[in-house]
Amino acid sequence: MGVALLSLTVLVVMVLILEKVRPRKRGSGIAIDSTAYYAVKPLTKTEQAFYRLLVSSLPGYIVLAQVDIKRIVRTKRGKNHLHFNRIAQLSVDFLICTPDFSVAAAVELDDPSHEGKQQRARDAKKDDVLKAVNVRLVRFDVRHYPSESAIRQSILESTNGAGDLKFAA
User: Fold this and answer.
1) Contact predicate 100/62, CB 8 Å
2) How far is Cα 12 from Cα 122, in angstroms, rounded to an integer?
3) What would the pLDDT profile of 29-77 be if each residue is shown by its tens digit?
4) What's the start-to-end Cα distance of the chain, in Å?
5) Domain DUF2726, which positions (predicted)?
6) Could you give the CA distance from residue 24 to residue 22 in angstroms, rounded to a whole number?
7) How far apart are CA 83 and CA 125, in angstroms?
8) What is the chain's alpha carbon radius of gyration, rounded to the nearest angstrom?
9) Beta strands in the chain (DSSP E)
10) Which CATH fold topology does 45-159 show?
11) Inter-helix orientation angle 45-57/148-159, to 10°
12) In a 3-state reduction of DSSP, which class is residue 62?
């Protein structure tokens, strides 16, 4: 009886250990606890105001908000997936597209939080990857909103000669 009890105990312990270390299939696990979540607006008040300014400044363009960079950047064949992982969590505040959804420019709103070391490193990574795929990144300081004409000029600089829409003066 002692050996049987010991064997059963060892078996139970092994099952518990395997359950802990065994990789779970994606999507499995605990059900969603609806009491743990609440809805929020996708844009802050500052981002909402700037979105409206972009839309009024750029007639004929499509303005998308909070776009993951992985939606507009892919890694080349033969390149390690680690290259993709380096950018997978990055996003841009706004993406300016032509009517056929070609990217005209990306827009970032910079506030005082962008002065920190960690955020500067993320910004540099974002700058580098967008430059690598020839997407111009236009940065605006939220403390000094540009005029509609300054926005048009900034976007025109990134689209002139690229066959994208141009603004009438």
Assistant:
1) no
2) 47
3) 689 999 999 999 999 999 999 999 999 999 999 999 999 999 999 888 8
4) 94
5) 43-155
6) 6
7) 12
8) 24
9) 62-68, 91-97, 103-110, 137-141
10) Trna Endonuclease; Chain: A, domain 1 (3.40.1350)
11) 70
12) strand
pTM here?
0.71
Tokens, residue 86: 């380096």
Please give the order of strands across the beta sheet that includes 137-141.
62-68, 91-97, 103-110, 137-141
Q: pLDDT, tens digit, for every residue of 42-55?
A: 999 999 999 999 99
Cα distances (angstroms) measured from residue 123 to each of 7, 87, 108, 127, 132:
57, 11, 9, 6, 14
What is the sign of the dihedral through the CA atoms of 154, 125, 84 and 51? negative
| 90: enclosing H helix or E strand | none
Residue 135 in 3-state DSSP?
coil
